[in-house]
Amino acid sequence: MAYGQTGTGKTYTVGSLGKDDPSERGIMVRALEDIISNTAPANDIVEVSYLQLYMESIQDLLAPEKTNIPISEDPKTGEVSLPGASVVRVKDLDHFLQLLQIGEANRHAANTKLNMESSRSHAILMVFIRRAVQENAVDEMISQEKASRADLPGRNSVPIVRRSKLLIVDLAGSERIDKSGLSSDTVHLK
Ligand SMILES: Nc1ncnc2c1ncn2[C@@H]1O[C@H](COP(=O)(O)OP(=O)(O)OP(=O)(O)O)[C@@H](O)[C@H]1O
Ligand SMILES: [Mg+2]
């Protein structure tokens, strides 16, 4: 999670695409690069959601028409999910760069005295990774999942799946309003 004063390089460090120069890539791209190089499409599923929290409302950065997304917590497992948020399966690094670019274009930013492109929302990248323990079991994993969701027979033969979730957060800057010259409608609520 990147936290700190406005203009100190949070978005640069976390979200830079580095399209022309890989040494300019930020943490989000580097993390996905690493994950993609350690996964195989036949065995693993890598999916992302990209959201922003602005004025106490969660909006889908990949489908901006989805606003006020609720937060739900499974009472049994404690797992937190965001029903309705898009979850996109990442094909390769170029595909992920496209998704980040779409998200960045939809993100709230404002020109302030301290930062010409100051993030006014918190951005949350969620990466979901699933690995079937048997080889070449991704198709089976998907079909079994559908079956178990519909509560159909076949639950017992669900393959063993390892799940992992990575969250990367780029917070909106903290600053004194008088210094940044912000108006009230561009100040995010914390
Ligand atoms: N290490 C760096 N090298 C070159 N430029 C940088 C570096 N870090 C930040 N910058 C530049 O400084 C400016 C401010 O950085 P950035 O937008 O990442 O700040 P921020 O912490 O996200 O601010 P805010 O909280 O207002 O969103 C940007 O123009 C960015 O490109
Ligand atoms: Mg920022």
UniProtKB/TrEMBL annotation:
Any single Pfam family the record assigns to this protein: Kinesin
Binding site residues for ATP: G4, Q5, T6, G7, T8, G9, K10, T11
Keyword set, alphabetical order: ATP-binding, Cytoplasm, Cytoskeleton, Microtubule, Motor protein, Nucleotide-binding
Localization (cell): Cytoplasm, Cytoskeleton
Chain ranges of the Kinesin motor domain: 1-190
SMART domains per the UniProt record, alphabetical: KISc
Protein family membership: Belongs to the TRAFAC class myosin-kinesin ATPase superfamily. Kinesin family.
Protein name: Kinesin-like protein KIN-UC
